Amino acid sequence: MTTVKVEVSGSYCVDIGAGLLEELGVRALEVAKGTAAVIVSDDTVNALYGDRAETALVRSGFSVCRFVFPHGEASKNGTTYLNLLQFLAEHSITRSDLLVALGGGVTGDLTGFAAATFLRGIRFVQVPTTLLAAVDSSVGGKTGIDLPAGKNLAGAFYQPKRVVCDYETLRTLPPDIFADGCAEVIKYSILGSPELYDHLLEKGADFDTEAVIAQCVAMKRDVVRDDEFDTGRRQLLNLGHTIAHGIEACSHYEISHGRAVAMGMAIIARAAARKGYCTAECAEAIERVIRRFGLPVETEYSAAALTQWALSDKKRAGNRITLVVPRKIGHCDLVKIPVSELQDWMEAGLPL
Ligand SMILES: NC(=O)c1ccc[n+]([C@@H]2O[C@H](COP(=O)([O-])OP(=O)(O)OC[C@H]3O[C@@H](n4cnc5c(N)ncnc54)[C@H](O)[C@@H]3O)[C@@H](O)[C@H]2O)c1
Ligand SMILES: [Zn+2]
Fold first, then answer.
1. Which of 5, 156, 296, 350 has minimal Cβ neighbours within 10 Å of its Cβ?
2. Which atom of ligand 1 is nearest to the CA of 184?
């Protein structure tokens, strides 16, 4: 087992290991008093792991109830959120009780936001069961829900008390959802670790799960520690994401986030090479690792369409936009450009 300690407003441990679900109760007990625990899960994850999580919590003295909602991004909305708050109230949950987010990023974001706001804040533990949740959404304290006007538009910065990542749960993930998480893992290697890059290129999807998740979590921890509230360095985590958001929107969310991020990273890398920020070899190396995971490096959408959608992204500040630009494998820079130049960047990254 590996533990990564996160020190932000309130410190917490991210435990990463095989079979940790069995120890969920013991680990939860270290951050809560063993009163009531509410497992929040989607129907798929609840069917797979709900009983094991509940048994482990009961063994440690928690009384347990479960809130289960239909799987999928469409559930990350105001209705599910309010239903969850109402469920907590009806079960007389108090501030000494605990929420347990058992699932992927949807469950983690929704549960975290409910934890941040129910009774003005109660404790919660993240139990990520997707690769994306393990390396990205369960750490860092961004919680929230989608609004009809856009994704993640309501939320709060609110840190979990603990993250318990049993990576054996990743074995039941459908291959395409696992691959989506791999795009974020690749992102970390380009942002900060040539060694991770080499490992991913060599092993492909057979990478050393525990070590890789731990390294990604530690990298996210370092970025978040320097910029908890996302005003500067944390923007590095958006590598490939400005373009990805354009691709997702153009496809009406038919193209998954991970695939869009893979395309976005390849496009920004080619643009960076054409504009002299990195070498052509660097851009090729980025494409190579993305292809190694069977992820796409091209998009059919035009630079004009991508630009239009990308500009409706909330990351925009006035008439400038910050791009995350690769310099070499393991190092990226934040580059602020006028909005008027964005289309030119997109064109530079699309095939000639
Ligand atoms: N808070 C953050 O910092 C942050 C960062 C990145 C992404 N996100 C959010 O995360 C969400 C995406 O996360 P996700 O991809 O984990 O989505 P998800 O939670 O919807 O999970 C994807 C699918 O996998 C299924 N699943 C989960 N674990 C499984 C398992 N072990 N075995 C079999 N099936 C399983 C789920 O039922 C679901 O259908 C988005 O809403 C995104 O906005 C948040
Ligand atoms: Zn992402």
1. 5
2. 6
Q: Which residue ranges make up each domain of the chain?
A: 2-172, 180-349
Using a 6 Å cutoff on CB, does residue 77 contact ligand 1? no
Residue 96, token pair as written in the block: 């000494």
CATH for 2-172 (3.40.50.1970, 1.10.238.20, 3.40.50.2300, 3.60.21.10): 3.40.50.1970
Alpha helix positions (H), the chain: 24-29, 43-45, 51-59, 78-90, 105-117, 131-132, 175-192, 194-203, 209-226, 241-250, 257-274, 280-292, 303-310, 342-349
Spacing, Cα 178 to ligand 1 middle (Å)? 10
pLDDT tens-digit series, residues 108-148: 999 999 999 999 999 999 999 999 999 999 999 999 999 99
Pairing of strands 98-103, 123-128: parallel
Residue type, 42: D
Q: pLDDT tens, 204-248?
A: 999 999 999 999 999 999 998 888 777 788 899 999 999 999 999
